[in-house]
Amino acid sequence: MKVKLIKLAHARSGDKGDTANVGLIALREESYSILVREVTAARVKEHFKGICKGEVERFELPNLGALNFLLHGSLGGGGTLSLMTDAQGKTFSTALLRMEIDVTDDEAMKLGA
Amino acid sequence: MKTKIRIAAGQGFWGDLPDAPVRQVEEGPIDYLMLDYLAEVTMSIMQKQKARDPKAGYARDFVPLMKRILPACVERDIKVTANAGGVNVEGCAAAVRDVARELDLSGKLKIGIVTGDDILDQIDELLARGIELRNMETDEPLATVRDRIQSANVYLGAAPIVEALNKGARIVITGRATDTGLTLAPMIHEFGWAADDWNRLAAGTIAGHIIECGAQCSGGNCQYEWQSVPNLANVGFPIVEATPDGTFVITKHEGTGGWVIIPSIKEQLVYEMGDPHEYITPDCVADFTTVRLEYEGRDRVRVFGIEGRPATDSFKVSISYSAGYKAVGTLVYSWPDAYDKAQAADRILRGRLDRLGLKFDQILTEFVGVNATHGPLAGLPSPDLPEVQLRVGVRGNDRNAIERFTKELAPLILTGPPGVTGFAGGRPKVEEIVAYWPALMPKQEIVPRVDLIDA
């Protein structure tokens, strides 16, 4: 079944020039492997279609139960050049938490979904 | 040697809660107060201030802050590390010295001055020697914007701050020093860590990263169960309790609001993260995939296991350059058909801008209440939206075109769709854009300088 990422994870995002970073953190340790399986760089790139114009890179932090994504070319030039309300990518965190991912019935039950 | 020191963060950015550093000093025991003043383009603002007034060019609020806390710092042996010096570190230090004298603290403290970061006057000579200072993001050589450069500063690390502390400085004022260096330096000074003790240097660096955004690790901007964060009105700013072995505890003063919990620390750890295996500072390369966290009590998270690697041969350089102009204006449209009206107004505005033949490098329309934060991910809005804010921004090199744009918004009130308001602020301001140019340069080109003056 499908669940929204916000059921499994919390997140914080920020900027480095025209690149937004989103750190996605499993709410419970056992959900980390689901994030690794489902929230691939390709899925994130697809999710941010029309927003992220460059590549998406993904890094794994099993020690924190977290994934870090770099969304290149996402901030309208970045920094002071950007005309965007969110030139610093602060709300990319919750934008990612809108994503729907597939979980097994067993996983869904454990999540209380 | 001390077996534990407490380093408190006084602010997360220049403009953060004005009383936070005072409260860090007054509301519990600390040994060091760390203050980060410099955002990426702050230096260019300071260069402009200094051009107008040779005595300016530093973070002016630092001086009245010192006036408030210096007596307590002297009495309770608290030291301060701050990159408040901007592009006039000596001027900032002289102003603090004057304040100390006013407070009758003459002879009771030394002020450390760290300089050598400002390379604005050396740019041509560096370029001539083949140091291209290419933009780390776009790979363009600096020569393309040479005539528009406004400031150029190397990010110095902990080493010169340590030197100042070792020489007996109570207040260390720097120009462009890394915020992590301001936290790491007291640890190196107190615990005598070696310059190649990479694991401990990485630990101190990560401690600095956790507290450098102030309360963003202690309950502020905390997405995890945000409704449950206690008493943010009285939020406590973070404190690192560092020990000689390189492990540390993040905490805050007792009785303050907010919380220090593992999820709040994790959120700050991933903030503005690039490749977590390589967090590069002038002092070391820290590996965030080695960080371990555990609870050590209420509002106490212990951080351990951190590993690091040797520092690189380069300093990062922060260059700012003039990059044209921009203006952003807004109008608010109300029910019914709020979104439709805002969209219609945008089409009318763009039609007029076209007819005027105005050229912009970029024009961006956002509808606040519909898509300004999550774009298309937000989906279609309810047809019953109570209001929508139209927000239009333009950017370009032709100041006159931008200026003209600012005169086209207000007329929409009488010449566009109905149900519009929200123009009390007048015409939007034309802003000069000062953009950021990150680059690398060989470390051996830079000789940081450390001076001490007596108050």
Task: Bin the helical content of chain B.
Answer: 25-40%
Q: What count of domains describes the coordinates of chain B?
A: 2
Strand content of chain A: 25-35%
Low-confidence blocks of residues of chain B: none
Quaternary assembly: heterodimer
Helix count, DSSP H or I runs of 4 or more residues of chain A: 4
Strand order of the largest sheet of chain A: 2-3-5-4
How far is the first residue's CA from the last residue's CA of chain A?
Answer: 9 Å
Mean pLDDT of chain A: 96
What Rg of chain B is obtained from the alpha carbons, in whole angstroms? 25 Å
Main sheet specs of chain B: 10 strands, mixed
Instruction: Specify Rg of chain A, calculated over alpha carbons.
Output: 14 Å
Strand order of the largest sheet of chain B: 11-12-8-7-1-2-3-6-4-19
Give the class of chain B from helix and strand content and strand pairing.
alpha+beta
Protein model, in words:
With 113 residues, chain A is an alpha+beta fold. Chain A has one domain. Chain A contains 4 helices and 6 strands, in the order βββααββαβα. Chain A has a 4-stranded antiparallel beta sheet. Chain A has a two-stranded antiparallel ribbon with strand order 1-6. Chain A is elongated. The N and C termini of chain A lie close together (9 Å). The mean pLDDT of chain A is 96. Chain B has 455 residues and is an alpha+beta fold. Chain B has 2 domains: 5-117 and 155-312, no CATH class; 322-434, Alpha-Beta Plaits. Helix content of chain B is 27%, strand content 25%. Chain B has helices spanning 20-26, 42-52, 62-75, 89-102, 123-128, 159-166, 179-191, 198-211, 262-269, 338-355, 399-406, 412-415, and strands at 5-11, 32-35, 79-82, 110-115, 149-154, 171-174, 239-242, 248-251, 279-280, 285-287, 292-297, 300-304, 307-309, 314-334, 362-368, 387-396, 420-421, 431-442, 449-454. Chain B has a 10-stranded mixed beta sheet with strand order 11-12-8-7-1-2-3-6-4-19, with helices on both faces. In chain B, strands 5, 14, 15, 16, 17 and 18 form a 6-stranded antiparallel beta sheet that branches. In chain B, strand 9 and strand 10 form a beta hairpin. The radius of gyration of chain B is 25 Å and the shape is globular. The mean pLDDT of chain B is 96. Classes of the chains: A alpha+beta (113), B alpha+beta (455).
